[in-house]
């Protein structure tokens, strides 16, 4: 095995671009990279070959810094990947991941302009590079939408993105899959040309082993370690084979024979290249360096590196807006969905019952009787009266045909008159002078019905005499709110908060919930390799999150304006307090939603699970936040849980502002703001930590 590694190197090798030493990486218990050593000389094409699942992509991800290694050292262009101030990830590296990692709603031109912005290229420079790439890679017209391209065309666009900024290092994960042989030859020709002319270093994986003969060096990988690393001719010569494929097969057989005794190559000839000028940082710890004058400069570089770049945030935001523009139907739905929801709440919740079938058993026959007169006061649109006999009326209720029975005794008029004019009356007179109501109370709606009946009889009919039959309780003019405050009024502020929270929250985490564009973006971008690609291009997790937050903020601002217009102007919900406070609180709740969405999308990879997580949290939150029913009705242990939910205090604060006209000096109001801000900070930090930990 060692002999394989001792094949002569091409002349002129002076330094290395990539050096991996004893690199290990696992996914849980699965050890994917196993003490791997690899050296890619500067200005070479390095063909990384190996069977599917041997760990090539994992290695490339470790090299570009999207995955952290568990053990060992990696040096890329002189420093470890993601070293503060280092432009790997960044401008120095062009990365083509195995997934296509392209925005489907973009044209080819949009795609290049987006990545050009991230690399800091001017528009003219990007256009110039794009024209060149169209010729070299035989790309379709620049204005073609990516989603309309064939698989091979998309792969070429993806390769074009990697080549865009003329990087020093190109990392290409299977760039020639699905590309026809003529174009494959053209791509290799271009790679050979840029390596020769510009001293670019290329590391390329491919399933077409024979095409790797054009590489300067090949690395044959199996089970997470390198079996051989040498120029293709040397590998073939070593194994007396006429093809690389044969040589590779022999190597695999030998490796199987050696089995577990074999260790990964510890020292290949490529390693002997004079390395230390470029590999300076490799053995140096990233943290814990002794302070000195040079370190001061380094700290400044690090600090600058850590600060989010406006350029990247702007590029990501423009990207989101362009994508929205390309999906206008989806955009309208996105804006209208919360309005539709709030309209439905206002129309469907808390109103008076309409068209209820009620059986009437009237034993008084005279048309001038009180009972006839009272029945005429019942609102016909609410209660549809069906005159029936006693037996039919009760049968109808038992059969579910009527919601209840209203009954009058045959002496109702005379007994009621007695009740009102005599000081003392017998129980029989009270009973006979009362309206008897039997209700099917399996529906809460009938409770509203009973109040309707009382209201019709006592308030409307008896008018000024109503006090004679009233209960010994008097409800005076309310201190806050009005006598007409209904369930809708109670529920609306909470619903606005909730809808804002969830519409924005779902934006970040769930898949195509009506929103389409931005909603899905984070989880899908992650899944499609777009987040990784942007990260390798130099966009940090903080920049991604901030851009996402700002663009979502734009969307929820429009949603909030539309919701408030409907709630305040169309449905005439009262607002006694400051509209500014109302808007700020709702926007802050929107941010809670976005940041909560970011937590879920940072923790979960696929849209289905993200959707389930969002829904799983939505309902308990809706029920327990005091939005539908007051928190005071929740039993004690659960009430404590309710109080720590992000919407409980916010809904209360919003109700206090809108209906009591309270300002920030009132504790329930400022508490709503403070708790919301606290949740926002917590969710944003948590999302960032999860993103960092999951590398
Ligand atoms: N995110 C992940 N979580 C768990 N296991 C993973 C993950 N990514 C890759 N693996 C596993 O790691 C191993 C190496 O995968 P990798 O994608 O690096 O292989 P590869 O050599 O690039 O394969 P191919 O040529 O088919 O692309 C595989 O067994 C794969 O199942």
From TrEMBL:
Q: Which GO terms describe its molecular function?
A: ABC-type transporter activity; ATP binding; ATP hydrolysis activity
The membrane-spanning stretches of this chain are: 501-524, 545-571, 577-601, 669-691
Write down the CDD domains for this protein, in alphabetical order: ABC_DR_subfamily_A
The domain of life is Eukaryota
Query: Where would I find the ABC transmembrane type-2 domain in this sequence?
Result: 455-694
Q: Which Gene3D superfamilies match?
A: P-loop containing nucleotide triphosphate hydrolases (3.40.50.300)
- Classify the main location: membrane
Pfam families, A to Z: ABC2_membrane_3, ABC_tran
Biased composition range(s): Polar residues: 258-277
Asked if Membrane is a keyword of the record, the answer is: yes
Cellular localization per UniProt: Membrane
Every copy of the ABC transporter domain together lies at 18-248
Checking SUPFAM superfamilies in the record gives:
P-loop containing nucleoside triphosphate hydrolases
Q: Tell me the segments the record calls region Disordered.
A: 258-291
Q: Which GO terms describe its cellular component?
A: membrane
**Protein's name in the database:** ATP-binding cassette, sub-family H, member 1
């Amino acid at each position: 095995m060692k002999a394989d590694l001792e094949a002569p190197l091409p002349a002129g090798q002076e330094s290395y671009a990539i050096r991996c030493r004893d690199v290990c990486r696992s996914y849980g218990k699965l050890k994917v990279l196993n003490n791997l050593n690899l050296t890619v000389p500067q200005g070479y094409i390095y063909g990384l070959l190996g069977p599917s699942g041997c760990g090539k992509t994992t290695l490339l991800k470790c090299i570009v810094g999207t995955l952290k290694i568990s053990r060992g050292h990696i040096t890329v262009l002189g420093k470890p990947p993601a070293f503060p101030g280092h432009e790997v990830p960044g401008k120095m590296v062009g990365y083509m991941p195995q997934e296509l990692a392209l925005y489907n709603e973009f044209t080819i031109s949009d795609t290049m302009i987006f990545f050009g912005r991230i690399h800091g290229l001017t528009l003219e420079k990007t256009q110039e590079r794009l024209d060149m790439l169209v010729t070299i890679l035989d790309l379709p017209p620049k204005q073609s939408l990516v989603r309309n391209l064939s698989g091979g065309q998309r792969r070429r666009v993806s390769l074009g993105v990697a080549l865009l900024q003329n990087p020093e290092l190109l990392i290409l994960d299977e760039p020639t899959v699905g590309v026809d042989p003529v174009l494959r030859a053209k791509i290799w020709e271009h790679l050979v040309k840029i390596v020769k002319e510009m001293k670019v270093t290329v590391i390329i994986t491919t399933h077409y082993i024979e095409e790797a003969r054009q590489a300067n060096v090949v690395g044959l990988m199996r089970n997470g370690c390198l079996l051989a690393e040498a120029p293709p001719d040397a590998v073939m010569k070593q194994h007396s084979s006429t093809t690389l494929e044969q040589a590779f097969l022999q190597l695999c057989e030998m490796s199987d024979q050696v089995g577990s005794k074999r260790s990964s190559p510890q020292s290949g000839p490529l390693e002997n290249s004079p390395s230390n000028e470029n590999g300076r940082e490799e053995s140096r710890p990233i943290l814990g360096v002794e302070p000195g004058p040079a370190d001061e400069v380094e700290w400044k570089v690090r600090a600058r590196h850590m600060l989010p770049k406006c350029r990247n945030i702007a590029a990501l935001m423009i990207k989101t807006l362009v994508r929205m523009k390309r999906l206008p139907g989806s955009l309208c739905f996105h804006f209208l969905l919360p309005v539709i929801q709030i309209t439905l709440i206002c129309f469907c919740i808390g109103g008076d019952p309409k068209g209820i079938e009620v059986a009437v058993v009237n034993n008084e026959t005279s048309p001038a009787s009180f009972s006839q007169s009272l029945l005429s006061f019942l609102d016909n649109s609410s209660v549809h009266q069906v005159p029936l006999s006693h037996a039919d009326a009760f049968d109808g209720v038992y059969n579910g045909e009527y919601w209840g029975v209203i009954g009058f005794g045959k002496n109702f008029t005379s007994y009621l008159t007695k009740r009102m004019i005599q000081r003392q009356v017998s129980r029989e007179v009270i009973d006979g002078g009362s309206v008897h109501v039997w209700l099917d109370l399996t529906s809460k709606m009938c409770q509203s019905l009973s109040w309707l009946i009382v209201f019709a009889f006592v308030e409307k009919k008896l008018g000024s005499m109503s006090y004679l039959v009233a209960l010994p309780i008097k409800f005076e003019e309310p201190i806050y709110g009005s006598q007409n405050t209904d369930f809708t009024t109670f529920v609306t502020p909470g619903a606005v908060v909730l809808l804002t929270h969830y519409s924005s929250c779902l934006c970040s985490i769930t898949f195509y919930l009506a929103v389409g564009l931005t909603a899905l973006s984070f989880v899908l971008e992650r899944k499609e390799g777009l987040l990784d690609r942007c990260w390798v291009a130099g966009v940090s997790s903080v920049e991604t999150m901030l851009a996402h937050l700002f663009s979502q903020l734009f969307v929820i601002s429009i949603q909030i304006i539309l919701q408030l217009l409907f709630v305040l102007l169309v449905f005439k919900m009262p607002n006694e307090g400051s509209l500014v406070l109302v808007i700020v609180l709702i926007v802050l709740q929107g941010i809670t939603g976005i940041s909560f969405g970011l937590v879920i999308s940072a923790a979960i990879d696929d849209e289905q699970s993200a959707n389930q997580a969002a829904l799983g949290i939505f309902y308990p939150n809706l029920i327990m936040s005091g939005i539908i029913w007051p928190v005071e009705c929740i039993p004690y242990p659960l009430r404590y849980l309710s109080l720590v939910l992000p919407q409980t205090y916010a809904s209360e604060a919003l109700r206090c502002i809108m209906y009591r006209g309270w300002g920030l000096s009132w504790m329930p109001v400022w508490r709503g703001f403070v708790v919301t801000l606290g949740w926002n900070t917590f969710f944003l930090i948590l999302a960032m930590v999860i993103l960092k930990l999951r590398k």
